[in-house]
Structures are given as structure tokens and as C-alpha cells.
């Protein structure tokens, strides 16, 4: 071996060791998350996220059908990124971690070995080890999408089977982990293959083989994972679009973060313009394709961060945008002394600034990532339920409630599923697991059809609450009709300072029917006066400005105003939720009002609704007219 080859080998070995060390820092500090009772302090609110993550794995353990029996943005393999080990194979968890972090190692290694600006690569890699959490979590879907972009880029440089294999593994994982990101991965994957066929003279047979392979594998795996593909795709689409309509947050104190994000995007665009200039005709479509990959990825990261605009989601934009930069070689393949390098260091500086300002980068957090002992100990001693310690718990329901429910099926509203599993009850999930996730008519109908059939649970534990300033009664409007008509109040209870109802399904109930009785148009601001036992489906329409706003940020803001004799209540709503309907002439303010409605008790005059109004924050975002369809509620 001559001297040059020895030096190259030594450098590559050094780069590999650095890449492994960097990956070690972000490798998980624990193998699985522990399933423990939630603290009684602020129990109800703290149960929201643990409940859906626990319920997803519980639903998988029951062999429920995804898409029909379960409709959620996360899929049957979501436990791999949530790291829920309840009745899971430790090998599936381990193999996912190996694959996931192998991608990090490859990206770090090839960036150090192949890209010119090694100073920038090291800075980005070290900064990523500080801000990427030492466990996959929900953001892992975005990370997998960026891994896909990396392997697509690799295939542009040299078409190889291994590049296709990594891409196919990623899109299959994404499809069954988180549908919305999985859908985008398909767009990128097949667009890349079309590009290679047209402009890179890819072999047709090979391209056809790798195009069909993921479809075949997903089809076969859908049987193993109990996925009804058509319904899984449809429900996933509705959850994604509905989320954009209603789940937004608007916190003025975080506006500087939006400015930082726009600055980051603007600098990245300038970088690409410098890269592509002067514009060469023979590279036009290649550069356009590369810019398209960047645009799609940065847009998805931006939307997921700034629709649900709390600090955790917002900071996801900065850490995953920085990961995108190192995944795409165009950004680090320039000399240190160049205008591109100046822009690149500006991008790094923005992420570092936000990380330090928001306390996302600290020495304590960094050093806490270094101890991996818990991960390996848990793996060696792993059993299917080794970390499930939900029982005994600190949140026991009253003994008389537990005795009444017994072994019968039970569901809970609006979201605190954790309570049922902590008390070892026979939880029967409705398709959309939590009320606030019923974003539109399609999703609400899934739950309604479940409750309007013989599959409905015998008992329901009912709390009365919602999130994001909505009106709780209309999170599941048709299902609430079933609860009112087909259930009775079996008991009341006070649990962790919250009053709840125990409802029991009546004997020999008849299904609810909706008979269309009228349809007409109104102006957007006209009062809507409702009659008893009539459901009013409301179709309002976005203007072109409103549709554009929905793409750039989130759906235009609109409220449902409830006018009574003495008060005006405003609840956030959306066009998709309004289409699901409204029906009650009574303002249901709390759990006691819900009980009165079920028991057909007389309401105070102050609860009588004079009219509903739709109040848009900006009327230019909506068309002037709306359509009302009336349905008589019968049995």
C-alpha cells in the first residue's frame, strides 16, 4: 500500500470513528419507556399525551384493524419511535434502533469523508448531538423523511441497489409509523425514480422492480399488522387535513421564533441560488429537482412546527432543518472561503442562537446523554411486560364504580384513557381514540357508527372538557347524541378534583337515524336558530385568500358564538368540524348540564340558546354564503 492510500485509509478510519462517536451521543439512553401511573397532580391534563400513546399499543395488542377500528395519525409501528415495550418484541425495538442510528452514522461519516467544508460539517454534527434527543420520539418520522432525502441524493450521484433498499425500508417504516409523513415519502420516492428514468437513463427494469417492491411489501405487511389499507389511507388523510384546520396555536410571545425560521429559510434559498448560478441549461432539471426536495422537506418541517406552535414543536423546526442541511450535500460541499460558506455559518448560528435562548442546549442535557447503561441493561433483562407497572396505581377509581363496571366493556371521554388501564378495566376503544382528534365529519362518523351499533361499550366514563378554546360539546357531536339517547346515568363520581359521570347503555336501544328535512343558504354572519332534536350541518367555504392562508400557516380562524339571554360564549371551530353539525338548543356549560340533558331535566332559562353565529377573524378568508342542511334526529 503506497503512502497516499495509507493516508486516505487513516483519514477514513478517523472519520468513521468520529461518526460513531457522534452517533453514540444521540443513541437512546433507555431501551423502552416505562408504563407507570400518572401523578395525581394535574392528572387530567397530564394524561392527554400518555393516553393516546398507551392506547395505540393497547389497540395493537388487541389486534384491532387500523383504519377501521383505529384511526390515528400514528400507525401500528408507532411503538418503535414511542419506545413502548408493552407486549412488544425486544428484537423489533432493537433492529429499529440499529437501522435508525446506522443512518446517522452513515450521514456523519460520508459528510466528513466527502464534503469540502469539513469545519461546517463538524459544527453541524456537534450541534446536532446537542439538540437531537437521545431517543427517537415523535420527531423520528421527520428524521426518517430526511434520511430518505439523503438516500435519494445519493442515488442521483451514483445509482445503486443499496440506495434503493434504504429508501424502501424508510418509506415502509414511515407508512406504518406515521401516515402523514409516510405519504410525503412516497411522493419523493416516486418523483425521484421518474427523474432518474428521464434524465439519468436509469434501467427501466430495475426502476420498475424497485417501484413495485414497496407496494408489494406494504400490501403483505398490512395483513401481518392488521391494516385495512384503503381505510388507513383515507382516515390518515382526514386526520392530517383536520389537524391543520383546528389544532393551531397562536402565541404572540413566540413571534421572534417565526422570524428566525423565515430567516433560516431565506438564507437557505439564497444558498441554493448561489449554488445554481450561473444557470447551466444541462443542469437545469437536476438543480430544479434538488431544490424541490429541499422545498418539500423544509415545508413539512415548518408546518409540523408552526401549526402546533408550542416551544417543543417550534424547536423541532430548527433541529430538523439543520439535519436537512447535512443530509443534502449541496450545503457543505463548498470551500470555507466562499459566499456559500458564509451563508451556511449563518444557518448554523440561527439554530445555535435559538437553542441557547430557549434553554434547549445546556451542558447538563448534553452530559445526560452520555450514559447508555440503562439501555443495555433493559435490553438484556427485557420481558414483554417488564416495564408495565400501571397497577397498582395512585389513581384508583372508587370501589363502587369499579364493581359496577366489573368486566364489562368501557370507554372514556374526552381523552384520559390512561385512567381505564391504570384500573385494569376492559377498555374498548372507539376508532378515533380521543375526542379532540375528531377533526371532521368523516372522523366523527367513525365514532358515531361505532357507538350506534352493537359494538358500543356497556359503560362510559364521561368528563366534560376540550383543548384550544373549543366548545366541548361539539368535539363529537353525533356520538354525544348517542350518549344522550341510548345511555343513562349510572353514577357520579369525583376523581382528582374533577366531577365525572358513569353512563350505562340502556337495554334494547334503537340506532339513531338522521332524516334530511331541509336545505338552504344563509349569509355567513346570519344567526342560526336551532330546534330540539334537529342536527344542522353547516358548510362554510374558504375564499382563495383563505385557502392560501391554510397552506402557508393554518386554516383561517373562525369561532362558533353561542348567544344566550345573559352571556355570549365563543368556541373555536373549523369548516370541517362545522360540517359535522350542531344540534342543541341548550348551552352545555359543564358536566352537570350534560347530566341534565341525558336525564331530560329542565334547563334554566340562562342555558337556552337564542342563536348561534359564525365569527371569522378575517371575513376576507371566507365566502359570504353558507349552506345549512337539517336532519331530524329519530330512532
Note the main attributes of this structure.
single chain; 635 residues; alpha+beta; five-stranded mixed beta sheet; three-stranded antiparallel beta sheet; 11 strands
Explained architecture:
- The structure is a single chain.
- The protein is an alpha+beta fold and 635 residues long.
- It contains 24 helices and 11 strands.
- The protein has helices spanning 3-26, 43-46, 48-61, 79-82, 90-114, 118-131, 140-157, 161-177, 179-199, 204-224, 229-246, 255-276, 284-306, 311-327, 339-357, 363-368, 373-380, 399-405, 418-422, 441-451, 477-486, 544-552, 575-578, 591-599, and strands at residues 409-413, 426-427, 459-462, 487-495, 498-505, 513-523, 534-539, 558-564, 568-573, 609-616, 625-634.
- A 5-stranded mixed sheet has the order 2-1-3-5-4. Strands 6-11-7 form a 3-stranded antiparallel sheet. Strands 9-8-10 form a 3-stranded antiparallel sheet.
- Helix 1 runs parallel beside helix 6 (118-131) and helix 7 packs parallel to helix 9 (179-199).
- It is globular, with a radius of gyration of 27 Å.
